[in-house]
């Protein structure tokens, strides 16, 4: 089971919750999208992903969309401090098998994880998924993102951050020509013609960050 959350205390708490319920489970962790992608590349089998939406390298539902594209048979439970009804509804529309608030207690977390592993879809009892769902554009963008390589995904994320090709090349320690090639492929997959259009398309996946982090589960 893979726990992807950039908050070390909460990540540790989630791992303890899983260990209590599944002492034989092999636990993997990631504190960024790059680390998540590295775990996917390193492990042929992942049975469950617990995913925070707000991690370094992620734009809203981008990490969720990419992972589901790579591992469509692996259920994903979003565990977030942002439990606004629209966020919950969009996460489910983008393929999450469940959504839990970071304020959930241990029993709720363990019960929901168990039901998702059994093949059910599970929402925290206090959450509402009846708000407006994902737009057709965001679903199309999610489908395109699911087909990006990890490096193309990183380039796309940096593009949204406003970095120029030469800056992205420096950050990734590659030649600028390599970044231009990645950009061409990203534009093709997104069905856009320019950086501006690409940023606007990718921004359809954005989610408002939570006001503050919830406390780790007790």
From TrEMBL:
<dbReference type="GO" id="GO:0000160">
    <property type="term" value="P:phosphorelay signal transduction system"/>
</dbReference>
<dbReference type="Pfam" id="PF00072">
    <property type="entry name" value="Response_reg"/>
</dbReference>
<dbReference type="Pfam" id="PF00196">
    <property type="entry name" value="GerE"/>
</dbReference>
<dbReference type="InterPro" id="IPR001789">
    <property type="entry name" value="Sig_transdc_resp-reg_receiver"/>
</dbReference>
<dbReference type="InterPro" id="IPR016032">
    <property type="entry name" value="Sig_transdc_resp-reg_C-effctor"/>
</dbReference>
<keyword id="KW-0238">DNA-binding</keyword>
<dbReference type="InterPro" id="IPR000792">
    <property type="entry name" value="Tscrpt_reg_LuxR_C"/>
</dbReference>
<feature type="domain" description="Response regulatory">
    <location>
        <begin position="1"/>
        <end position="117"/>
    </location>
</feature>
<dbReference type="GO" id="GO:0006355">
    <property type="term" value="P:regulation of DNA-templated transcription"/>
</dbReference>
<dbReference type="InterPro" id="IPR058245">
    <property type="entry name" value="NreC/VraR/RcsB-like_REC"/>
</dbReference>
<dbReference type="InterPro" id="IPR036388">
    <property type="entry name" value="WH-like_DNA-bd_sf"/>
</dbReference>
<protein>
    <submittedName>
        <fullName>Response regulator transcription factor</fullName>
    </submittedName>
</protein>
<dbReference type="GO" id="GO:0003677">
    <property type="term" value="F:DNA binding"/>
</dbReference>
<dbReference type="InterPro" id="IPR011006">
    <property type="entry name" value="CheY-like_superfamily"/>
</dbReference>
<keyword id="KW-0597">Phosphoprotein</keyword>
<feature type="modified residue" description="4-aspartylphosphate">
    <location>
        <position position="52"/>
    </location>
</feature>
<feature type="domain" description="HTH luxR-type">
    <location>
        <begin position="141"/>
        <end position="206"/>
    </location>
</feature>
<dbReference type="InterPro" id="IPR051015">
    <property type="entry name" value="EvgA-like"/>
</dbReference>
């Amino acid at each position: 089971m893979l726990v992807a959350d950039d908050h070390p205390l909460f990540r540790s708490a989630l791992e303890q919750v899983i260990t209590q319920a599944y002492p034989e489970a092999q636990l993997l962790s990631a504190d960024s999208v790059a680390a998540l992608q590295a775990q996917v590349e390193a492990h042929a089998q992942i049975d469950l992903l617990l995913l925070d939406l707000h991690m370094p390298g992620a734009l809203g539902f981008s990490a969720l969309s990419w992972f589901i594209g790579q591992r469509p048979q692996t259920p994903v439970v979003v565990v977030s401090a942002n439990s606004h009804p629209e966020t919950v509804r969009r996460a489910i529309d983008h393929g999450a098998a469940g959504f839990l608030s970071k304020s959930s207690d241990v029993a709720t977390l363990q019960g929901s994880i168990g039901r998702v592993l059994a093949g059910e879809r599970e929402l925290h009892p206090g959450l509402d998924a009846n708000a407006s769902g994902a737009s057709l554009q965001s679903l199309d963008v999610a489908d395109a993102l699911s087909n990006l390589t990890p490096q193309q995904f990183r380039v796309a994320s940096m593009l949204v951050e406003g970095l120029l090709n030469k800056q992205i090349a420096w950050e990734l320690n590659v030649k600028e020509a390599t970044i231009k090639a990645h950009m061409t492929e990203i534009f093709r997959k997104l069905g856009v013609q320019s950086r501006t259009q690409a940023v606007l398309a990718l921004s359809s996946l954005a989610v408002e960050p939570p006001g503050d982090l919830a406390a780790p589960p007790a």
